[in-house]
Design goal:
InterPro entries: CBS_dom (IPR000644), CBS_dom_sf (IPR046342), KdsD/KpsF-type (IPR004800), SIS_dom (IPR001347), SIS_dom_sf (IPR046348), SIS_Kpsf (IPR035474)
Organism: Cinchona calisaya
Order of helices and strands: HHEHEHEHEEHHHHEHEEHHHEEH
Number of strands: 10
Strand content: 5-15%
Protein name: Arabinose 5-phosphate isomerase
Oligomer: single chain
Family: Belongs to the SIS family. GutQ/KpsF subfamily.
Structural class: alpha/beta
Number of helices: 14
Largest sheet: 5 strands, parallel
Pfam families: CBS, SIS
Radius of gyration: 32 Å
Length: about 350
């Protein structure tokens, strides 16, 4: 498999290149970023906030599905904004204008909103789609950057995204126009998020596979080991008689309990090494209860799993596990650092 040749720099940080190699001029690159910033500032400074408020309020009041559509690069932006709304629990979808004209328009109803992204507002596929969507009873909104345009006369609401020009030297490639479309759509999405009092917990519920979602959803009881998985022993048991229990359950400890499964303490593999070093052959006569930690860190089953991880890592020294107990200090499980990591936390 081939690879690009390495970039060689001189002491002046200039590229060494062959006679035919093309170079990026750093000054020109910086100027492009500054120019794009200027064009984006033009958008922010000239956006009609009253019209934007009406657009946002219309989406908030929608009782149906908010569909987005567009062609080419504007179509990709429309898809992305739709996905953002979906992730925030808002009913949304992308409607391909071409597919809509060949049957997919059947998904539209009179309760729906159709947002049409187009830089020029004269995109043929959208102009053809608009009256058909209107006939279905949908509420039509155009989001364009050139006025006047054909869509303005076909839609119920029109939003203009002020565009000074494209960053492209020919003012052709849609790079600035799509940037402001994305900024506009995603900012409106966050406004809807706030208006709907969308919480972190609700966000997490829509992102259960991600680390953020797991940290806000998973509780200790969801990730703990329980019942036969627990390395349990009694305080009167000899340490040497419990080595199999200590090593076979994969927890790195023994959970010392009394009658009623009430937790008395813990005895770790680290405790075993320290006891062996200090007692030598005397370890054969020592009980778990004599050497266990009578004041271990514990956690409840309804605590968040991420809280368990924070508790394990807290001073004075980190630990690899936490016994899980109820309000009566009855042992019901154990959560391990390995288990939390395996769960994606």
């Amino acid at each position: 498999m081939g690879s690009l040749p390495p970039i060689q720099l001189t002491s002046n940080s200039d590229r060494k290149c062959s006679e035919n190699e093309e170079l990026i001029n750093p000054e020109n690159l910086l100027n492009l970023f500054k120019t794009q910033q200027k064009y984006l500032n033009h958008f922010f400074q000239n956006l009609d906030l009253s019209r934007t408020l009406l657009f946002t309020q219309t989406l908030l009041n929608s009782t149906g599905t908010i569909f987005f559509t567009g062609v080419g690069k504007s179509g990709f932006v429309a898809q992305k904004i739709s996905q953002t709304l979906i992730s925030l629990g808002i009913k949304s979808g992308f409607l391909s204008p071409v597919d809509a004209l060949h049957g997919d328009i059947g998904i539209l109803s009179s309760a729906d909103v159709l947002v049409m992204f187009s830089k020029s507002g004269n995109t043929e596929e959208l102009v053809r789609l608009a009256p058909c969507a209107k006939a279905k009873g949908a509420y039509l909104i155009s989001v364009t950057s050139v006025e006047p345009n054909a869509l303005m006369g076909l839609c119920d609401l029109n939003v203009n995204l002020p565009l000074e020009r494209e960053l492209c030297p020919f003012d052709l490639a849609p790079v600035t126009s799509t940037a402001i479309q994305m900024v506009f759509g995603d900012t409106v999405a966050i406004a809807l998020m706030g208006a709907r009092n969308f919480s972190k917990e609700m966000y997490a519920a829509n992102h259960p596979a991600g680390r953020i979602g797991k940290s806000l959803i998973f509780k200790v009881k969801d990730v703990m080991k329980k019942k036969e998985e627990l390395p349990v022993c009694r305080e009167g048991d000899l340490i040497m008689d419990q080595l199999v229990e200590l090593t076979s359950k994969g927890c790195g400890c023994l959970l010392v309990v009394e009658d009623g499964y009430r937790l008395l303490g813990t005895f770790t593999d680290g405790d075993l090494r320290r006891t062996l070093k200090a007692s030598g052959e005397g370890i054969f006569k020592l009980t778990v209860g004599e050497m266990c930690n009578r004041h271990p860190r514990t956690i409840g089953p309804d605590a968040m799993a991420v809280e368990a991880m924070q508790k394990m890592e807290s001073p004075p020294s980190p630990v690899q596990f936490l016994p899980v107990v109820n309000h009566d200090n009855v042992l019901i499980g154990i959560v391990t650092l390995h288990g939390l990591v395996s769960a994606g936390l």
